[in-house]
Task: structure prediction
Amino acid sequence: MIDLRRSRYAEAVQDQSLSLFFSGHAPLRTADEFYPFTVNRNFYYLTGIDQEHVVLVIAKGANQVKSFLFIEKIDPVKALWDGAGLTFEEAAQQANIDIENVRDIDTLDTFIAQMLSTTRRALFGAIDTVYMDLERLNEKVPATEPIRYGTTLKELYPYVQLKTNQMILAELRTVKDETEIHEMKKAIAITKVGLDRIMDHLKEGRYEFQVEAEYNYVLNLHRTSPSFGTIAASGKNATILHYRDNASAIEPGSLVLFDLGCFSNHYCSDITRTYPASGTFTKRQKDVYETVLDVNKKAIDYLKPGMTLKEYNDYGKMLLTEGAKKLGLIKEDAEIIKYYYHSLGHFLGLDVHDVGNYAKPIPEGAVITVEPGLYIAEEGIGIRIEDDIMVKVGGNINLSKDIIKEVKDIEAYMKK
Ligand SMILES: [Mn+2]
Result:
């Protein structure tokens, strides 16, 4: 499976090129303390290896493609302090790369020199292009490892062309294979256990963070962590899209919105549910909830391969506009912006807001969130219902269908 991903990647790059992927390093936190290491997602996608300071090189000649892995040798002293890393054999097996192509990372620069040298071009011929993921969020973010490495390459080998492979990877990663869907289902299943526990412990007067702690307890038991900052937002707090204080007391009679997820081998879940703190919806809460739920279900059916995300978004907005009119919230279409101010969904995968070509039609095999919401600040009501959907010809698969969302099911569960 992993080597198939690499061959698909290699098909998309030009001949006579090298592609470099860095697993990355844990960033320094303070003194000799580091932040937890999180593997570069493109590197992980193409190797299945979750370890610092490893580099994958894919060399593409006119009629051959070869993968090389550069990894730290086992250091017996380091092994005593931090535990041993992967052996060359283990790395070769995990990444499905020939053992003779797994090398000591200290030899990487020499290897690159041999590949790019103008005088020693026996193996792959004249390589004139180097691909890396030269991603940049904005000018304030420090330079990534590929950007720094690219600057050095340009200095040493000015005749080499640097190219970013960001969009190649983004498009490959959009279409999920079986292994990936399996991991996402696992993450969603843990999230379900967490949401059930949330309903078990949700009570008026408790603090939002106390209920969040019940979710974290489930994640700890499953040895995983949130895939993004958990939102536990009661009453009016739920109308703030990225509310993450989770510090308020849950008022009697209020609704509580939980937008949360977790990882399974780096694959994310992203689910939102909204529950009544008392265990029962009021008439008004139920009316708004049913409106959002109806849009959630219709959008899940509407989503199809070949459609653009814009068409999908527009459909959701249109339905929510109709709903808001029926609820007496608005009269004109343009007023919907007051009660619904985000998009209907995004790609999901190794990143929560996963990479993908958001301008191109949605391919079969993409996983997309469906998350309509209505936010009525003046009534202290914020409702969002989010599922994770695999887009398929002949009918989508709702990966989160087991997480209850019907009013009657939620009320029955919370009563017991
Ligand atoms: Mn989402």
